[in-house]
Amino acid sequence: MKQLAPSILSADFSKLGEDVEKIQRGGAHLIHVDVMDGHFVPNISFGASVMKSLTGKTELPFDVHLMIEEPDRYLEDFMTPQTEFITVHQEACIHLHRTCQHIRSIGAKPGVAINPATPLSTLSEILPFVDLVLVMSVNPGFGGQKLIPQALNKITELEKIRGDNSYGFKIEIDGGVNRDNLGEVRDAGTDIIVAGSAVFGADDIEETVRDFCGILENKR
């Protein structure tokens, strides 16, 4: 099943709870939590307290994406009963295997992300040990960017690698996804689609999520 994970980075933080209720009613599957430290990426977003403020106020699980340096120092901070995935960047982790073991040891599913200029070959030794691979389709740090088409080639190649080796990880895409390219992103082999400004910037958030989910289910 294809899943939609709206990114609260693009939500209105003055009414975050209301916006999250809207995406849940619309049929979203996960809440994507983009965390940026101003070092690994050229922007600062928010910390664990913002995510934790939603705990118990929504049924949606958290899909945590740490775009930060030294992620091992902060993993426990993002662990809640609703945290499903914690994803770290290949480029930020010196000991990636150890970091993924750390994530699993605290009760979350480990994920690994790669930036647009990072080749899939850098993940060859970690793929058997992760539950999620996140392909960045923009350069991380800012919302509202245009999708880099080459990311779809990576996803198609990654899906083949998964099938050839019987790996169990899910494939996620983050960056520049909108209604115009959603069908193409779906057909490339993506399992989880992150959408930020295309969802939270819409006039009707709930209906937009419902529309996106219909496209992902090939009904629209």
What does it look like?
The protein has seven helices and eight strands; from the N terminus they run βαβαββαββαβαβαα. The relative contact order is 0.17. It has 220 residues and is of the alpha/beta class. It has a single domain, classed as Aldolase class I (TIM Barrel, Alpha-Beta Barrel). The two termini are 16 Å apart. It has an eight-stranded parallel beta sheet. It has helices at 16-26, 48-52, 96-105, 150-165, 179-187, 197-200, 205-216, and strands at residues 3-6, 31-36, 62-67, 83-89, 109-114, 132-136, 170-174, 192-195.
Which short descriptors sum up this protein?
220 residues; alpha/beta; TIM Barrel; eight-stranded parallel β-sheet
List the helices and strands and how they pair.
Blueprint lengths: L2 E4 L9 H11 L4 E6 L11 H5 L9 E6 L15 E7 L6 H10 L3 E6 L17 E5 L13 H16 L4 E5 L4 H9 L4 E4 L1 H4 L4 H12 L4
Parallel strand pairs: 1-8, 2-3, 3-4, 4-5, 5-6, 6-7, 7-8
Helix pairs in contact: 1-7
Q: Supply the number of structural domains.
A: 1
Query: What would the principal axes of the Cα set say about the shape?
Result: globular
Helices and strands, in order, run as EHEHEEHEEHEHEHH
Q: Measure the end-to-end span.
A: 16 Å
Strand content: 15-25%
Count every helix, treating DSSP H or I runs of 4 or more residues as helices.
7
The low-confidence parts are: none
Identify the CATH class: Alpha Beta
Overall strand count = 8
State the helical fraction: 25-40%
SS-derived structural category = alpha/beta
Mean pLDDT: 94
- CA-based gyration radius: 16 Å
Main sheet attributes: strand count, strand direction, barrel closure: 8 strands, parallel
At the fourth level of CATH, the homologous superfamily is Aldolase class I
What name does the CATH topology carry?
TIM Barrel
* CATH architecture name: Alpha-Beta Barrel
Taking strands numbered 1, 2, ... along the chain, how are they ordered across the largest sheet?
1-8-7-6-5-4-3-2
